[in-house]
Amino acid sequence: MKLNESIRNINKIPELRQRILYTLLLLFVYRLGSHITIPGVDAAAVSGASQTHSNDLFGLFDLFVGGAFARASIFSLGIMPYISASIIVQLLGAVTPYFQKLQKEGEDGRQKISQMTRYGTVLIAVLQAWGVSVSLASPASFGTAIVPDPGIFFTITVVVLLTASTVFVMWLGEKITERGIGNGISLIIMIGILARFPQALVAEFRSVSLGSKNWVIEIIILAMMAAIVAFVVILTVGTRRVPVQHAKRVVGRKVYGGSTQYIPMRINTAGVMPIIFAQSIMFLPGTFLSFFPENEVMQSIAKLLAYDSWWYALMFGTMIVFFTYFYTAIAFNPKEVADTMRRQGGFIPGVRPGKSTADFIDNILTRITLPGAISLAIIAILPTFLTKFANVTPGFAQFFGGTSLLIIVGVGLDTLQQVESHLLMRHYDGFMKSGKTRGRQSR
């Protein structure tokens, strides 16, 4: 009843309804383009060859682009070059004075940074498209020839087409963010992951029906999956509230302040960005190694860094912990929070304003970020353990935990919160809570 009422309320708000329809339309365009095969590629041959690579980095990359890579689609690169460029620009913003200056220039600085990110996206897309063209043209990559007529013309076609498609997907994401609902880049990644869920679910239950698994064990696995999803939701929305007291001020005949508010410090302040950043970095070795499909040394390194290996899990988990702290430091600045509190006449009970308040907030942030970062890392590498010890199919294991589940939960909650904000602004109940809006505002 509550869900049906919320859906009816969405239909009553023309602006929100148009935003949702616009978002769905652009996501449909993205999914439609992911089924268009690159010219010069035998689609049937690449589909059959991709089945043998479902448990390596090829299959993991294909998961993020919704099967477009396995189909040799024009959207094979998806939005990952843009993510990689964003990581590089944000890293430069942390260590380069020029980018730090741009970050402080307001809207003009953000526009310049966005433009540099777009240029970086084109450069990375060209390099990755070149690697894709080499892999497609080499029979050693797939065990069979999937390009009937490889040559320089095929390479140029693939590079130009995949680069232009990546720019188009980036434009779709920016338009969804601007005129739709939710973060467009994150939604494109999420919809690509969700597109593989029905196929993974069917493959898992097919293995049970064939007798390779016990139904009782499968039910236990599904129960564990529900528990992990609940834990991820709790981890995503969990907060530590820091009390802030405002001193009373008399302005004319009115008294201001004297109330207690809270600073909501999330356990996972960085959200899904550390997962996306770390995953994009882990794709880079595979892209580099794709240029040497016939080199035995390079291919042995590729097997060592396969996403179901222990080395990959260790490196991936370490990167997630690092990027969690890195992105938290960018998203939440204790010194700015302390300065804002002091200007507004607020203070934390028992802590002196200024530097002491900044150090107090930074200490709390460091403590609550550590368990959040470790939890993210454990959940991200969980599919590796499930595939090796629980005999879960690789495709289904990605939804049991790992990057896929974290992105789906994080992006889904963020999108629902944006929808709810539109509903609450117009005095309707949202998805996340029950009760009347007026009563929540009064409390």
Automatic annotation (TrEMBL):
Keywords, in A-Z order: Cell inner membrane, Cell membrane, Membrane, Protein transport, Translocation, Transmembrane, Transmembrane helix, Transport
Chain segments annotated as transmembrane: 20-38, 79-99, 119-140, 152-172, 184-203, 215-239, 271-291, 311-333, 368-390, 396-416
Assembly and binders: Component of the Sec protein translocase complex. Heterotrimer consisting of SecY, SecE and SecG subunits. The heterotrimers can form oligomers, although 1 heterotrimer is thought to be able to translocate proteins. Interacts with the ribosome. Interacts with SecDF, and other proteins may be involved. Interacts with SecA.
Organism: Pelodictyon phaeoclathratiforme (strain DSM 5477 / BU-1)
Any one GO cellular component localisation term in the record: plasma membrane
Pfam family for this entry, one: SecY
Top-level taxonomic group: Bacteria
NCBIfam families: 3a0501s007 (TIGR00967)
Gene3D superfamilies per UniProt: SecY subunit domain (1.10.3370.10)
Descriptive protein name: Protein translocase subunit SecY
PANTHER family: SECY/SEC61-ALPHA FAMILY MEMBER
GO BP annotation list: intracellular protein transmembrane transport; protein targeting; protein transport by the Sec complex
Localisation per UniProt entry: Cell inner membrane; Membrane
Protein family: Belongs to the SecY/SEC61-alpha family.
Gene that this sequence comes from: secY
Record HAMAP family: SecY
Membrane topology: Multi-pass membrane protein
